[in-house]
Specification:
Strand order of the largest sheet: 3-2-1-4-5-6
Mean pLDDT: 91
Number of helices: 15
Radius of gyration: 23 Å
Bound molecules: zinc ion
CATH topology of the largest domain: Rossmann fold
CATH architecture of the largest domain: 3-Layer(aba) Sandwich
Number of domains: 3
Number of strands: 17
Low-confidence stretches: 138-149
């Protein structure tokens, strides 16, 4: 099955993330292709994919002089000045070639890159996306809220896949459906047992003591590839949800925790974040929990305070959610978690406040290991193309270079567009 592979250049195929490369990328200084440093495995990857019948196109925001020179290394087509995450230039390019257009419209297309802009572009195109960071990055983030690098931002944009190197990328592209996240895989009727590796924190004094946060499906906001399952997340709160549906939710958890690499960690208890008395349906998550079929004793460990008022859902900010949880959610008084290895199931990860709160609560109470699994991870929103409310022309997403905030711009002739100059701020958060 041939695939159209749209691949980013800088930081993905070539090691040019250092600021010293800017003058070349901007086209101010000329460079020949043999002077550009290529990542390990990149040439082989491109060659292998071409031999397998795929079409490879470099998509880069850099200057054409530089991009076309770099494309010689790989002997592939290239689109420069793509203006990610805006998708119009890439769409126009694809439409210029029947073969590319055929692959694109039949869903045989993937965007690969090292930044959120690549993932956002892919989602705007409605195709599969793959995050891959080849330069220095930390997989184990020591601090909860600080030091979260590029990897975390990519994860929050919800790529279809996140791979560690070109060898893994090659395997995934051979059979994408076999590498979906576990719950997405259940609905695609395949057998994958992958999870979104949100975070892993290992105790610096005891390598066998850690907590890990994993998610089994993406709950997209805005446009995405067809494997993301926000539709299934909303079913969870539907009072008419079917037994089939609940079985599928539970099947995903069962499959994930039954695979050897998870099972071999020897878990003592499987629990879940209980539904509050006011939750509708009344056994919202419990109904899934009860259907999980694993050889781990199930036990309820947590309870909500009787004085509880308000809802977690109404606390949009991480700090407010954390405060709310500290006030109302606790370990039941008759529970001892000392030295225990515990799996906790929850329905949804948004800011991560519940996951971090529970992991810390259990670790501070003496637990040995915690595996916090959510059915869904809410992704950042990917915005649809927007039309200017003043003049009706297509607006573009721009980034304020000083403040870093993003806004829609009906680009005026002064900045190379044909619009009226109207701007509208974008509120990028969950
Ligand atoms: Zn306008």
């Amino acid at each position: 099955m041939a695939m159209l592979i749209l691949i980013d250049l800088d930081g993905t195929l070539v090691n040019t993330v250092h600021p010293s490369w800017k003058e070349y990328k901007d086209g101010h200084t000329k460079i020949t292709y043999d002077k550009i440093p290529v990542f390990y495995g990149a040439k082989e990857f491109v060659l292998q994919r071409k031999e397998k019948g795929d079409c490879i196109v470099i998509i880069s925001d850099s200057h054409p002089d530089y991009v076309n020179e770099a494309a010689k290394i790989f002997d592939v087509d290239a689109v420069s000045l793509t203006d990610k995450p805006n998708d119009s230039k890439v769409r126009d390019f694809i439409q210029g070639y029947d073969l590319y257009q055929d692959l694109f419209t039949s869903g045989k297309c993937i965007v690969i890159g090292d930044t959120k802009l690549d993932i956002e572009l892919g989602r705007k195109l409605g195709v599969m996306t793959m995050g891959m960071i080849q330069y220095q990055t930390t997989n184990e983030i020591k601090d909860d809220r600080d030091g979260i690098g590029d990897r975390m931002t990519i994860i929050k944009y919800g790529p279809t896949f996140f791979v560690k190197d070109f060898a893994e990328a090659d395997r995934v592209i051979d059979a994408p459906q076999d590498y979906l996240y576990t719950l997405e895989s259940v609905f695609a009727e395949t057998q994958s047992t992958r999870a979104i590796k949100y975070n892993t924190v290992i105790d610096s004094h005891d390598r066998n003591s850690y907590y890990a946060i994993r998610c089994l499906a993406r709950q997209q906001s805005g446009i995405c590839d067809s494997y993301a399952r926000a539709d299934m997340y909303y079913q969870l709160s539907n009072q008419e949800r079917t037994d089939d549906y609940l079985q599928n939710m539970a099947l995903a958890v069962t499959r994930y925790i039954s695979q050897a690499s998870v099972k071999n960690e020897k878990w003592d208890v499987c629990t879940y974040i209980p539904d509050k008395a006011t939750t509708i349906p009344t056994d919202k998550l419990k109904a899934v929990f009860m259907r999980i079929d694993a050889e781990i004793p199930k036990q309820e460990l947590f309870c909500w305070d009787e004085t509880i008022s308000g809802s977690l859902r109404n606390q949009p900010i991480y700090a407010e959610r954390k405060k709310y949880l500290e006030k109302y959610l606790r370990l039941s008084s008759d529970v001892d978690v000392y030295n225990k290895s515990i799996i906790v199931i929850d329905d949804q990860l948004t800011t991560g406040a519940t996951a971090y709160y529970i992991c810390h609560l259990l670790m501070n109470s003496g637990a040995q290991k915690v595996l916090f699994i959510t059915l869904f991870q809410m992704t950042f929103d990917v915005l649809d193309n927007k039309v200017c409310p003043v003049c009706g022309k297509k607006m573009r997403i721009k980034i304020n270079r000083q403040k870093g905030n993003r806004f829609y711009s009906c680009v005026s002739p002064e900045y190379g567009g044909d619009g009226c100059g109207y701007i509208e701020n974008i509120n990028d958060s969950i």
